[in-house]
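Appendix B, example 12.
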Amino acid sequence: MLQHDPKMVLGRPPQAVSGGTNEAGMPPGDAEAAYRFKLMPIDKIGLDTDCPYLIRDIIPSEGLTVVWGPPKCGKSFWLYDALMHVACGWEYRGHAVTQGPVVYIACEGEKGVRRRSFAYVQNRLDGFEGPLPFHLVTTRLALRDEYAELISNIKAQIGSINPVAVAIDTLNKSLAGSENKDEDMSAYVQAAEAVREAFKCAVCIVHHCGVEGTRPRGHTSLAGAADVQLAVKRDETGTIITTVEFLKDGDEGETIASKLEVVTIGQDKTGADITSCLVLDTQAPAPKAKGKKTMPGDYARAREFLADAVAKSGITVSSDGIPAAAKVITVDAWKATLADHGLIGKANGARDGQKARDWLCNMKRRLIGDNMIRIVEPYVWLCK
């Protein structure tokens, strides 16, 4: 029978004994430093009071953010503008920000990004005091192979204050390998995580969508590692719609509407105007009464099953973002109900694996967009 060692209290390592060493045979103070996997006594765990967001309810202060959408939808313009607000310390569309240095790595369209920066300086920064901590890098990048040099170069040039965000635009131009291969995408994610860990910052990656336009392109390991997934599209009016379709520990479904304004920033050697675009806040156009897409039948059924589950076992909870009177169930409980009714899962040929995840994502986004449900993880409830 194992005997209890009275010297071990709440997982603490043995203390020093006579002779100048502890029971591990090391000098006092060296034992804890030698542990790769250090045990933390529960009574020594402190409260993390650091600010949890870069842009409240949109981008957390640390983690992997994927900004995805089809070509020419405005996703790069949108992210550039949002992170410029962070660098300037300006509130973003009613969302508080945590100011700090930003590093924006443009791996394609370098001339366009330089013009975008020039337009911002000309039109937005009049009266801004002090140096602007927004740093542009225009280069080709193989993140998997060059992340260590990238980290070293940033540390050497940016000074003693770490960047709060590192943006990589785009994934395709910074990936050495194939987007569809597990090993290549996993190695890319690990490199991005190394950048995040080095600076304890947000790493924002601009990415394209697949052929169907329903999810980020390539292997699903990227989506699986993301702390935030922001979908960007441009509607028939030219309005750029950014949707928070996944936010770990936050609310999903918020939309941000933007438009591009063309500005002249100079003339070239022939006298022709040089132009770029600025991102402006706007209102999303009201949906047209005619031609509105009918709710897919399986989405309507998913909501009906949610209503049944809420009526049967819904509870009220006290949590930020959830109405006090709302009856809620967990998202996992809803998924279990959907599996019981054959909408997802392996039974009876239902959607499984990636097909189920894609269907769930699209279904939730549609119901949230139609103001029929709301989700604040881990809970879901009915709106109407």
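The longest helix spans residues 182-199. The first strand starts at residue 53 and ends at 55.
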